[in-house]
Amino acid sequence: MPELPEVESLAEFLRDQAVGRSVAAVDVVAFQALKTVDPPVTSLAGLTVTGVARHGKFLDLDCDGIHFITHLARGGWLRWRDDLSGAKPVRPGKGPLAVRVRLAPDDDGREPGFELTEAGTQKRLAVYVVRDPAEVPGIAGLGPDPLAPEFTAEVLKGILSGNRTQIKGLLRDQKVIAGIGNAYSDEVLHAAKMSPFKIAASLTDEAVADLHEAMVGTLRAALERSRGMAAKDLKSEKRSGLRVHGRTGLQCEVCGDTIREVSFADSSLQYCPTCQTGGKPLADRRLSRLLK
């Protein structure tokens, strides 16, 4: 799933490639992906892309005041195409293509644009066409952005205070902190040397400061690694930079211990016992506690 660093990098890429161009057409192939009806998606034709923003894990193209917003969900991605003039029409329900955005042709006749695709059988990619980003429910309810200057250790302390949620789940909750998903929550907790099942309210002031430093540092480092990359290269860059997530059974790059996994019904987490849990493995079941 694209998370804050990848979505911000996509936003930067589109600022360079799309801002200043007018929209030729938006072709919706997966009709279930379009979540709004007013303004109609056809109203984007002829408008100019004036800005690109990120709200948590939402990507926002401002087209003369009408916003084309997408959430790529677990299996979605954005694929830039230098020339869509020869792209074949795609029938709904065939293949991974969900939406195709065509931009006005260049002087050489090429028609640039991008496609939103979604792999897998669970189709959760979402597209909204709205006049105000706050009209999107997921954006209206977002917590603070961890890379915003005002997101200080004191702000994080206030969020954690009195919260009996396990820290792994809290970091993934978009209503609490925006932009962090399953992968980077694993990475942040590894960098902070913290168990994923630590109760948020139990953190000392020192642990909160360490968590804040790990959160900001991990996200900024991932963003710097991907900055300037083409959209097609961001997925592989994310994988190459991960230290624990998706690395079950491999050696921890910090201490050499074996990275372990806890599996849930629809997801899993990875962690290093030596770095995060005092050398003790976590029981591989929901709401696990340290094995005695």
UniProtKB/TrEMBL annotation:
Start and end residues of each FPG-type domain: 243-277
The keyword Membrane is annotated on this UniProt entry: no
Source superkingdom: Bacteria
Keyword check for DNA repair: yes
Cofactor(s) required, per the database record: Zn(2+)
Matches recorded under Gene3D superfamilies: 1.10.8.50, MutM-like, N-terminal
Keyword field: DNA damage, DNA repair, DNA-binding, Glycosidase, Hydrolase, Lyase, Metal-binding, Multifunctional enzyme, Zinc, Zinc-finger
CDD domains (UniProt xref): BaFpgNei_N_1 (cd08973)
Domain Formamidopyrimidine-DNA glycosylase catalytic: 2-93
Similarity-based family: Belongs to the FPG family.
The name this protein goes by in its record: Fpg/Nei family DNA glycosylase
Organism listed in the record: Sphaerisporangium flaviroseum
